[in-house]
Design a protein that fits this description.
Layout (H helix, E strand, L loop, with lengths): L8 H15 L3 E6 L4 E4 L1 H7 L2 H4 L10 H17 L3 E8 L5 E11 L7 E8 L1 H42 L5 H32 L1
Antiparallel strand pairs: 1-2, 1-5, 3-4, 4-5
Helix pairs in contact: 5-6
Length: about 200
């Protein structure tokens, strides 16, 4: 009995790639040397608006205008060098929203056929928003802490200066009031420092 002819390796590789790409949660595109899309998987089509619109289109058309020049230069480097590149950039999705993507681009098809670049992307929008929120929180925390520590320091310094320069002119009760202000300010600072240390230990 004659065995069926084996499929060419290239055809098998293409079918394997497509089977993996079609079910992947990551967004996958195959580009030509000019950056035009020759293949997009369902994940990418869902984000940017359908395969019919995307196949044959410029892959940079959906990139945020402020990131487009940088991405075009990166694509040129990948094509010219044959070396992969990683990038983080913004795209405009099918609903007009700005999304942050993290992508890895690699050259494939190094044989006699046309050069192709496969781009595997992941949506990192939520991570970017979290990073921004944490940065804002950090700045607010620094500002609040700076104010809370400087206020008692100012009280201590002014009280010490008054006692040092005009102490003999103050009555016993006035001097006691200044000492009480210093004691209160020191207590406030001590409480702030203990709170900061506790917060840092909890965060660690």
């Amino acid at each position: 009995m004659q065995r069926p002819a084996e499929a060419p390796v290239a055809a098998l590789d293409e079918r394997c790639f497509q089977a993996i790409a079609e079910s992947a949660s990551d967004m996958i595109a195959v580009l030509d040397a000019d950056g035009r899309r020759r293949y997009v998987n369902p994940a990418l089509a869902g984000l940017l608006g359908g395969r019919e619109r995307l196949i044959g289109s410029d892959s940079l058309a959906d990139v945020h205008p402020e990131d487009r020049t940088r991405l075009r230069e990166l694509l040129r480097q990948v094509v010219d060098s044959g070396e992969g590149r990683r990038a983080e950039y913004r795209v405009i999705d099918r609903l007009g929203r700005i999304r942050f993507l993290e992508s890895q681009s690699n050259v494939i098809g190094a044989g006699p056929g046309p050069l192709r670049v496969v781009v595997v992307s992941r949506d990192v929008t939520e991570r970017k928003h979290l990073e921004r929120e944490l940065s804002d929180l950090k700045q607010r925390f620094i500002s609040m802490t700076n104010h809370e520590l400087r206020t008692p320091l100012t009280t201590i310094r002014s009280s010490v200066e008054l006692l040092s320069g005009y102490g003999p002119r103050f009555s016993a009760s006035e001097r006691q009031e200044l000492f009480d202000d210093i004691r209160s300010a020191v207590g406030h600072m001590t409480g702030m420092i203990e709170h900061l240390l506790k917060t840092c230990r909890s965060a660690g």
